[in-house]
């Protein structure tokens, strides 16, 4: 099969290569998926630079990519819940860096898979799993629900835009930080936008004079602003800043979970969750997608299309 690989750690795209690799084997509790779309996430190029070396074994050559949407080719013998032809999606992280999703085929554990919502296109579904599960897990940890006022840092990004929609679906009021050019976009998602940067805390306080009940930091480096706007007894969590733990907050990690992903699929099917796609790239242009992701100014998700 065709796949993108790298054969050594690199903090640029110099080791990326498009070529032929063996088709994946399908363990008994896994499913072979023909990849129709695979979301790009910052962890993909951070892992290529060796950022996960303390946590995960790496087996070179590595196929990057942890998001997938596609069609079941063959379920393993211990997977009665999926059948050939099913349209599915998954956060396909494994216990070692090796067999990712920037390829024509990938084998994924059945427990990590959910059926694709019919009203999401392949690119949207391919961009949903990791970012959507991250947003969901942060909001679960913060116990966000009816009556909460939630501040979402980096609300127009891939994770942030989904966090806004999930929080709104739970009945929360949402304030989201973003650049001015993305304020109308956030209003369309149901959030009150504020510009990030100097004076952020004051702008949030204008919208929530008594403070916010929860803060989801999806950018990092926002601790001072978070503490300045958090109401007494408020909760805060970050996906990028360990310093929050010194101030009563929590660092949240995401893990593959097909059942949780199915809840996001249900929101999408009910029209309460959409995925903004910023761009789609063929396998030959994974490096270009990585460059855009590294720049950090993309609204929504970047996606790889192996068929292009």
Q: What would a concise description of this structure say?
A:
This protein has helices at residues 42-48, 122-127, 129-142, 158-169, 183-189, 200-207, 223-229, 258-269, 286-295, and strands at residues 2-6, 16-20, 30-40, 57-63, 67-75, 87-91, 96-99, 105-109, 113-115, 149-153, 173-178, 192-195, 212-217, 230-238, 250-251, 277-282, 301-305. It has 308 residues and is α/β, with parallel strands linked by helices.
- The overall number of domains is 2
Number of strands: 17
Mean pLDDT: 97
Q: Which shape, going by the Cα principal axes?
A: globular
**DSSP summary: helix tally:** 9
| Radius of gyration of CA atoms, rounded to a whole number | 19 Å
Order of helices and strands: EEEHEEEEEEHHEHEHEHEHEEHEHE
So what's the CATH class of the largest domain? Alpha Beta
CATH fold name of the largest domain, please? Quinone Oxidoreductase, Chain A, domain 1
- How would you sum up the major sheet? 7 strands, mixed
Distance between the termini: 14 Å
CATH superfamily of the largest domain: Medium-chain alcohol dehydrogenases, catalytic domain
Q: Identify the CATH architecture of the largest domain.
A: Alpha-Beta Complex
- The chain-level structural class is alpha/beta
Give the helix level as a range of percent. 25-40%
What proportion of the residues form beta strands (DSSP E)?
Answer: 25-35%
Low-confidence residue ranges:
none
Structure description:
The protein is 27% helix and 31% strand. The chain is of the alpha/beta class. It has two domains: 158 residues, Medium-chain alcohol dehydrogenases, catalytic domain (Quinone Oxidoreductase, Chain A, domain 1), CATH 3.90.180.10; 121 residues, Rossmann fold, CATH 3.40.50.720. Helix 3 packs across helix 4. The longest helix has 14 residues. The radius of gyration is 19 Å and the shape is globular. The model has no long low-confidence stretch (mean pLDDT 97). This is Zinc-binding dehydrogenase. GO terms for molecular function: oxidoreductase activity; zinc ion binding.
């Amino acid at each position: 099969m065709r796949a993108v690989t790298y054969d050594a750690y690199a903090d640029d795209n110099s080791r990326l290569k498009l070529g032929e690799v063996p088709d994946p084997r399908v363990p008994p509790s896994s499913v072979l998926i023909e990849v129709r779309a695979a979301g790009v996430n910052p962890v993909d190029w951070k892992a290529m630079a060796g950022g996960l070396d303390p946590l995960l074994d790496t087996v070179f050559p590595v196929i990057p990519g942890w998001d997938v949407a596609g069609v079941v080719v063959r379920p393993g013998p211990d997977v009665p819940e999926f059948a050939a032809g099913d349209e599915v999606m998954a956060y396909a992280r494994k216990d070692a860096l090796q067999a990712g999703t920037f390829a024509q085929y990938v084998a994924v554990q059945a427990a990590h898979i959910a059926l694709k919502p019919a009203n999401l296109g392949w690119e949207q579904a391919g961009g949903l799993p990791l970012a959507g599960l991250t947003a969901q897990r942060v909001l679960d940890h913060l116990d966000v629900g009816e009556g909460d006022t939630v501040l979402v840092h980096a609300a127009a990004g891939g994770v942030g835009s989904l966090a806004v929609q999930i929080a709104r679906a739970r009945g929360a009021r949402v304030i989201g930080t973003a650049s001015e050019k993305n304020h109308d976009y956030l209003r369309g998602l149901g959030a009150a936008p504020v510009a990030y940067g100097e004076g952020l805390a004051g702008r949030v306080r204008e919208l929530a004079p008594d403070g916010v009940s929860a803060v989801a930091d999806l950018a990092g480096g926002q601790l001072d602003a978070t503490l300045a706007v958090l109401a007494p007894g408020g909760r805060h969590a970050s996906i990028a800043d360990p310093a929050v733990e010194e101030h009563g907050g929590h660092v949240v990690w995401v893990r593959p979970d097909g059942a949780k992903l199915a809840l996001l699929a249900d929101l999408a099917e009910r029209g309460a969750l959409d995925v903004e796609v910023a761009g789609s790239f063929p396998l030959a242009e994974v490096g270009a997608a990585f460059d855009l992701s590294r720049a950090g100014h993309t609204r929504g998700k970047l996606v790889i299309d192996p068929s292009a």
